[in-house]
Amino acid sequence: MTDRTEVDKVLAEAAHHANSSVLAASDLAGVGDPYFPVDGSDLFTITHHTLEVDFDLTSGMLRGVARLDIAVSADVPAIALDFGLPTQAVAIDGSTLAPRVVPGKLVLEPDTGLSAGSHQIDITYAGLPGEVEIRGERSWLNTPLGALAAREPHAAAFWFPTNDHPSRKATYDLTITVPRGFVAVAPGRLVEHSHTSRVHRFRWVTAEPVASYLYSLVVDRMRIELDTLDDHGVQWVSAYGDGVNDSAPSARASIETTPTVCAWLVTLLGPYPFDAIGGVVTRMAGPHALETQTHPIYGDHFFRRSLDSYVVAHEMAHHWFGNSVSLSTWNDIWISEGMATYLSWMWSEHNGEGTTDELFSSFYHLRAANPDYWRIPPGDPSPAHLLSTQVYERGAMATHVLRRSIGDDAFISCLRTWCADHRHHHGSLSQFLATAAAVSKADTVAIMQPWLFARRRPDPPPGVLTPADLEPPSLRFIRRTGDPQSPRPAGPSR
Ligand SMILES: [Zn+2]
């Protein structure tokens, strides 16, 4: 346990050690993402994070020791990590240095610079992640029963130092200590867990690289269940927070559809890319979920009425689109969200609960009278509308037009080729359309232009159903997933 006096002491000590200074433009030279230009850095790559973290729920204090294995591509005078907590000690290759702290960045500037090649950075830190604000965002949530760091597009730098961009993925080995009675779940396999009279300790290891925004953490009073899923040794991890009592049966029934949903996705997209799978359900106020790698995090809101395998299909589809194949830049969000939404439509069709033609036509007509809706293009929605309804719905509509234009065989071939060629890497929207063109011999850029980039409602495509054809009873998917006239709130959702 840590009292407030000690919290203040640690923060004061950290401020003393950190050499805060004037902001330099070069400190904020990120990877050059069109939407979030300050994010990350293209001067170096973190290959592996080793994190040892202790989180005290009473005070909200998080103490950590991070060892980052990095690769620097060319000699540089300095590098900047994305990080918002105060540091107490920093060393590169064993030599200590005083970092410069600028908002959301930790600038490391050794006297002799950094040479091209491999280096090791050690950082000791402590602070209150719930009070960290980076460029106007707060992403660490202290909840009534625990804490949650799960937000798209930014959550990592609120609790560990990293290179915070999906094009800069790395592996992780996290050991986290929480008070006894609490469970901490992070991506990957749970390889060790132990306890003393005071604390529980969990060690989570990822064999495959993870985009930093998908390296989520849930600390909660939870029941955690482990199993081995199949002959390949994939580890099953499911966890249900104590706060989800009312919806626990339907939450469990929904999460337990994951292997079935995944087996169906494998038939479409190719092998499952990871060595762990499952889901975490925790109490949340709204309908939020995130495709946290290997164990998506679901708010219990999804399961309050009944079983919902569509949110499971969406989050697991991300394990190919968004997780294994990450975004090269955030403006290409359609490849992740449009595709995951469309695959949940295909899951509806597979289950006889509304065909993709019916779903496409329903949304196309439902949004007809709303010109503002069509002003946000899913192929370039803007940072403010990154997770807007249009990215999901219009994104899925665009995907349906692509499928109907090039045919089922070419469409599935495109998806499988994309997932194989970019496995555990990243890709851009233009590369995706090039893949679709290569397998179909069609002008996919021309086909997709109005559906991805137009700021008006595209003309109806061939085969669109009329409103008279669309009997509401056939659209169980829409009724299950909510009123499509009421857009979901932006945030860490789906
Ligand atoms: Zn999603």
TrEMBL record:
Keyword Ribonucleoprotein on entry: no
Pfam families (UniProt xref): Peptidase_M1
UniProt EC number: 3.4.11.2
Gene Ontology biological process terms in this record: proteolysis
SUPFAM superfamilies recorded: Leukotriene A4 hydrolase N-terminal domain, Metalloproteases ('zincins'), catalytic domain
Superkingdom as given in the UniProt entry: Bacteria
Enzyme class: hydrolase
Cofactors that this protein relies on: Zn(2+)
Coiled-coil segments on the chain, per record: none
Catalytic activity: Release of an N-terminal amino acid, Xaa-|-Yaa- from a peptide, amide or arylamide. Xaa is preferably Ala, but may be most amino acids including Pro (slow action). When a terminal hydrophobic residue is followed by a prolyl residue, the two may be released as an intact Xaa-Pro dipeptide
All copies of domain Peptidase M1 membrane alanine aminopeptidase, residue ranges: 310-451
Any GO molecular function: alanyl aminopeptidase activity
Region (Disordered): 457-494
Swiss-Prot/TrEMBL keywords: Aminopeptidase, Hydrolase, Metal-binding, Metalloprotease, Protease, Zinc
UniProt cross-references to InterPro entries, sorted A to Z: Aminopeptidase_N-like_N_sf, Peptidase_M1, Peptidase_M1_aminopeptidases, Peptidase_M1_dom, Peptidase_M4/M1_CTD_sf
Keyword Plastid on entry: no
PANTHER family: AMINOPEPTIDASE N (PTHR11533:SF297), PROTEASE M1 ZINC METALLOPROTEASE (PTHR11533)
Family, similarity comment: Belongs to the peptidase M1 family.
Protein name: Aminopeptidase N
Organism encoding this protein: Streptomyces spectabilis
Organism lineage: Bacteria, Bacillati, Actinomycetota, Actinomycetes, Kitasatosporales
